[in-house]
Amino acid sequence: MYNRSVVAVVSPSTEDLILDACDELMVRYGFRKMSMDDVAKKAGLSRRTIYNFFKNKEDLGLSSISRVVQLVFEEMESIASSDAPVDDRLSDVLEERVLGRLRRVSEYASSLDELFEAVRPAYMSRRQAMFEAEQELLLGLLDEGIEEGVFRSGVRDFAGSMILATNALIPYSLSPEELGNEEEVSAKLTKMTELLLGSVLVNERK
Distance (Å, rounded) from C-alpha 106 to C-alpha 121? Predict the structure, then answer.
């Protein structure tokens, strides 16, 4: 899902209009009370058009989650390819992996439990592919850091461990109270990132 080409457009696609409407309605009503008729009305489209893109409300909700993951991954890629020192890039990528997700769902955080309950089986089947793509990105940074002498040799396996560790702070794993407190999650993430980076750096950060 991550290798599709991205084309810049002036206006959002019909699919994005529908997803935007879905997200706005989840803020207002929650996922359970939201109907496909509500989505069609909010998007200014016919119900038939909505079903041309999404087979049912659960498919729409799952696509909303997938869009968040895609946008976060693209930002992670941008950070990873920047000119910053490799250890800073690795730290920032881990931060974006957590906080990027959190910020993009914060407005409808109260309805996330409803959403995940409805789409959980389908989401779980996709989740591993998402995580594998993110792990490959981390692995590339670790390899680069090893080559530069910034990271210790033999730490390639840490890519998977970093995914598992930060999974504890992504929205799917958080309580409703935690979802509404970015400052608290950010503080936990900072401590976690320091531990993860400290385990791979040749010299401890000052």
Answer: 23
Q: Cβ atoms within 10 A of the Cβ of 118, count? A: 17
**pLDDT band of 175, cuts 50, 70, 90:** confident
Q: Is 170 left (phi over 0), alpha (psi -120 to 50) or beta?
A: beta
Instruction: Give the start-to-end residue ranges of the domains of the chain.
Output: 57-198
Q: Give the number of other CB atoms < 10 A from CB of residue 195.
A: 10
C-alpha torsion angle, residues 28, 33, 36, 40 (rounded to 10): -20
pLDDT at 177: 76
Torsion angle of alpha carbons 104, 19, 24, 47, nearest 10°? -170
3 state DSSP class of 204: coil
CA distance 132 to 129: 5
Element (H, E) at 31: none
Helix axes 36-43, 14-28, angle to 10 degrees: 120
Report which of 83, 80, 60, 82 is spatially closest to residue 72, judged by C-alpha positions: 80
Q: For 103-143, write each residue's pLDDT tens digit.
A: 999 888 888 888 988 898 888 888 888 999 999 999 999 99
CA dist., res. 65 & res. 61, Å (int): 7
What is the rounded distance in angstroms from the CA atom of residue 10 to the CA atom of residue 70?
A: 19
Overall CATH class of domain 57-198: mainly alpha
Residue 68 pLDDT: 94
Name the amino acid, one letter, at 179.
L
